[in-house]
Amino acid sequence: MRTIRLLSALIILFSITSLYAEILDDKALLLKLYSEEKMAYDLFGEFYDRWQLNIFSDVQQREARHVWCVEVIMNKYSAAISAGKKKILYHDKDTESLYNELSVKGCISDLSALEAAAFLKEKFISDLRTRALNINDGYLLKVIFLLEKAAKSHFKAFVKSIRLSGSEYIPVYLTGDEFSNIMAADKNIAGN
User: Fold this and answer.
1) What is the pLDDT along the chain (192 residues), one digit of tens a residue?
2) Is residue 117 one of the residues assigned to a domain?
3) Domain presence at residue 144
4) Which pLDDT does position 11 carry in this prediction?
């Protein structure tokens, strides 16, 4: 009887620990998503200020909605947004490093800014797909799906702008088939 109680207690403890770890993972994911959406918003605003291309302003407005939506979801999951002790812009060094790298690239020319924006959206699509594989929460999975759908729409718009400038975008994270499928997809409903 004592062994059964001990086993039951261990199973309960393991279940609670696993659930707590999953909650922490969800909060970390939300904070990462928030940082990425905020970084895209800032980057596209910077590119618009420098080059005055409407595509940057249009996508930046949509990114503002994404930032707000992730904030609302974070409140649902009680994942507070705090800068912590380190003075970084985006809650993690990887996102800040990517921002710095793409910001410098986007200062070279308007075409370089479009390429940096397309690269960012392509990376987001790839990252979101990878994250979706590790999510058990149906609500968060839907959030990831909607963010990926928006990222595809933005990516497609940036690639079309690159093509209009007489250049071609070469995908880094997506396969040739994935890239072709995104570019061939019907125009998404407005509001991404």
Assistant:
1) 565 544 443 343 333 333 333 444 788 889 899 999 999 999 999 999 999 999 999 999 999 999 999 888 888 777 666 544 444 478 788 999 999 999 999 999 999 999 999 999 999 999 999 999 988 888 889 999 999 999 999 999 999 999 999 999 999 999 999 999 999 997 544 445
2) yes
3) yes
4) 42
Residue 16 is assigned to a structural domain of this protein: no
Q: Which of 17, 137, 122, 135 is nearest to 76 (CA)?
A: 137
What count of other Cβ atoms lies within 10 Å of the Cβ of residue 69? 17
Range of the domain at 167: 28-184
CA–CA separation, 113 vs 105, rounded Å?
7
| pTM, entire model | 0.83
Write out the chain in H/E/C secondary structure: CHHHHHHHHHHHHHHHHHHHHHHHHHHHHHHHHHHHHHHHHHHHHHHHHHHCCHHHHHHHHHHHHHHHHHHHHHHHCCCCCCCCCCCCCCCCHHHHHHHHHHHHHHCCCHHHHHHHHHHHHHHHHHHHHHHHCCCCCHHHHHHHHHHHHHHHHHHHHHHHHHHHCCCCCCCCCCCHHHHHHHHHCCCCCCCC
Q: 143: domain CATH number?
A: 1.20.1260.10
Residue 164 lies in a domain: yes
> How many domains, the chain?
1
